[in-house]
Amino acid sequence: MDAFTWFCIYFWFLFFIIFGPMVFFICIHLPEVSVQYIKKLRF
């Protein structure tokens, strides 16, 4: 593999390390926040 391929692999690796936990955090906490917000609107 050439240097460009290694660069792409390295870039995606860093991308997933940085944004993976962020996306996971959003997917876990966003439904809870929206549910609390809807409950506040209801009452």
**What quaternary form is this?**
single chain
What is the H/E string?
Answer: H
Biggest sheet architecture: none
Question: Which structural category fits the helices and strands?
Answer: mainly alpha
User: What would you call the shape?
Assistant: rod-shaped
* Helicity level: over 70%
Using only C-alpha atoms, the radius of gyration works out to: 18 Å
What is the strand content? under 5%
State the separation between the terminal residues, measured CA to CA.
Answer: 61 Å
Report the mean per-residue pLDDT as an integer: 88
Number of helices: 1
Low-confidence blocks of residues: none
Total domains: 1
How many E-type strands?
0
Tell me what you see in this structure.
With 43 residues, this protein is mostly helical. The chain has one domain (1-43). It is built from one helix and no strands. The radius of gyration is 18 Å and the shape is rod-shaped. The mean pLDDT is 88.
Annotation keywords:
1 helix; transmembrane; mainly alpha; transmembrane helix; rod-shaped; single chain; membrane; 43 residues
Secondary-structure blueprint:
Blueprint: H1 3-42
Summarize this entry quickly.
Keywords: Membrane, Transmembrane, Transmembrane helix. The chain has about 45 residues and is mainly α.
